[in-house]
Design goal:
The complex is a heterodimer of chains A (about 120) and B (about 110). Chain A contains no helices and eleven strands. Chain B has no helices and ten strands. Classes of the chains: A mainly beta (about 120), B mainly beta (about 110).
Chain lengths: ~120, ~110
């Protein structure tokens, strides 16, 4: 399997539920990202991990909790979400941005999240 | 911080040529990415310009002027499958990519 794989593709959850999104990359990259894409809005950067260390948290509410156990896996743990959190959540990977050069992001197909 | 400006929507017909402009203001500029995103799908990489000038890649070309903070994506021989959003993203060294709102292109027959 190649590229960036996200599971599940679709998720419906209530506001009191706890769920996790999973991302796996098979590209040998050392940086992984979570982006959020709401309807009619641009992609919003949420979290950046470089060499398994979180290097950026873009003022994301604490109800979103990322985890990067190794350079190939990234999780986004969700709890007590709000309906406005309904969106497409995209995982991406690249070579570390700290390398200075522009390494393209490779995106997964995303998880379409609906909070009821 | 960054400021990225693209037209929100554009329309064109099959076989035509369309130019999607992007102006940006950013510190520590290294280069500029263009991505394509079909509705409900992940963005896919199209091009990365570092130097001034035009880079051609098949039907798609991308242009950069660093001094003017300006780039464009040129799509030739448009096809229906080119209907998508096109995202401009200036790259700042050592940081993660921040995207503009994108331009939604509709190609009709």
């Amino acid at each position: 399997e190649t590229g960036v794989t996200q599971t599940p593709r679709h998720l419906v959850m209530g506001m009191t539920n706890k769920k996790s999104l999973k991302c796996e990359q098979h590209l040998g990259h050392n940086a992984m990202y979570w982006y959020k894409q709401s309807a009619k809005k641009p992609l919003e950067l949420m979290f950046v991990y470089s060499l398994e260390e979180r290097v950026e948290n873009n003022s994301v509410p604490s109800r979103f909790s990322p985890e990067c156990p190794n350079s190939s896996h990234l999780f986004l743990h969700l709890h007590t979400l709000q309906p406005e959190d309904s969106a497409l959540y995209l995982c991406a990977s690249s070579q570390s941005p700290g390398t200075g050069g522009g390494s393209p992001l490779h995106f997964g197909n995303g998880t379409r999240l609906t909070v009821t | 911080g960054q400021n990225i400006d693209q037209p929100t929507e554009m329309t064109a017909t099959e076989g035509a040529i369309v130019q999607i402009n992007c102006t940006y203001q950013t510190s520590g500029f290294n280069g500029l990415f263009w991505y394509q995103q079909h509705a409900g799908e992940a963005p896919t990489f199209l091009s990365y310009n570092v130097l001034d000038g035009l880079e051609e890649k098949g039907r798609f070309s991308s242009f950069l002027s660093r001094s003017k903070g300006y780039s464009y994506l040129l799509l030739k021989e448009l096809q229906m499958k080119d209907s998508a959003s096109y995202l401009c993203a200036p790259y700042q060294a050592g940081t993660a990519l921040i995207f503009g709102k994108g331009t939604t292109l509709s190609v009709s027959s």
